[in-house]
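May I ask for whichever protein you like with its backbone structure tokens?
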Amino acid sequence: MKRMAIVLAAGQGKRMKSKLYKVLHPVCGKPMVGHVLQTVEKVRCERSVVVVGHGAEAVRSYLGDAAEYVLQEQQLGTGHAVKQAKDLLGHEQGSTLVICGDTPLVTAETLESMLELHETSKASATVLTAHMDNPKGYGRVIRGEAGDVLRIVEQKDCSPEEDAVREINTGTYCFDNAKLFSALEKVTNQNAQQEYYLTDVIGIMKEAGEKVLAYQTDDHTESIGVNDRLALSQAESFMRERIARYHMLNGVTIIDPASTYVGADVTIGADTILNPGTILKGNTVIGEQCEIGPQSEIEDSVIGDRVTVKHSVLNRAEVGESSTVGPFAYLRPGSKLGEHVKVGDFVEVKNSTIDDGSKVSHLSYIGDAKVGKNVNVGCGAITVNYDGYNKFVTEIEDDAFVGSNVNLIAPVKVGKGAFVVAGSTITHSVPENDLAIARIRQENKPGYAEKIRARARAKKNSQSQS
């Protein structure tokens, strides 16, 4: 049976009190509507239509070609929103999933179970429900004596008896597509909000003698719809716990999940250890048997197996197997480390490659550079890559030795096996196996230090008397 999805993402989200459109607020690093659309894709929906309104262009820009779009110019309720998809989907036969773009915690497993119940039972509609001890703000699911769904009543329209019901509507449904759009034609706005409720479709179908079922999720957190910053923080907390549990069950050690942040799209290999204060964001990939942290932030980076990263920041960088980074290192975009590379304390690397076995152990800046294999870069050495207008490349070939406090004024090349003496400022390329020294000859002046101090004291006394 063909499956389709309608994602409701047209609401303004005034309670968020934000310039950012509601469904684009991130949960664990991914906008809410991104979570929802990814979940829909996992249950094999062949077409996904996103209903946009406020912030339509921003949503289209983020989702791109991952969905089709319809515009709800006036926000007249959920039923009105779904009806906007009629021109695209009204002629289709099959099952249509309707889900809100601000419900990032709904899982593919739950949707698949609901869809299977709906399809095998040949139901006209199936409602995803949850039990909540405090259902304030949610529509109530009213069942008949046989347990079938009679209707869904919004909070503001509940009678006292209906208000006491603890089974709530999550806002996610599965419909027979043709019957959905037929019933939508009969929905009115005769309610407290004067809106066209999608929930009224349930009552219309029941009156027509159609089969309406409910599938209750065991995890009430899946029902959370994010309408304000408090709900956003709750969704973030539940998602973080879910992500951490997933990785730990797949062989990752997380010393303290409460102080560790792992984004929704992060991949981590088995036997890796995440220490407290670790933040992994974006599309980061961590290999096996790594140790990350404490207090390290890695974003959109690829880390090989057996890598150690401590107290460091990596952004759009690559680190090869068995390398070490930190403490207190900064790998900026375009940094690529080979295998068995050491980037030590207070080292910054930007848009540079450092090949296998090389070491930049401390207090150095490597920018716009190509560093070969088995190179030693001494303490305080820097590549001077910027003249105020343009960036230039420094090349250091295999087996070269760069001493402490060396300035390499780009563009410059240090040849294979060359040796650059500490304290040198190199402005010309150094040929293979040559030794380069570029510093002023030392001159000692006997007793001159005391003359300088005497001169300074006299000047200070003169200033105090005046």
About this structure: The longest strand covers residues 167-176. The chain has a mean pLDDT of 95.
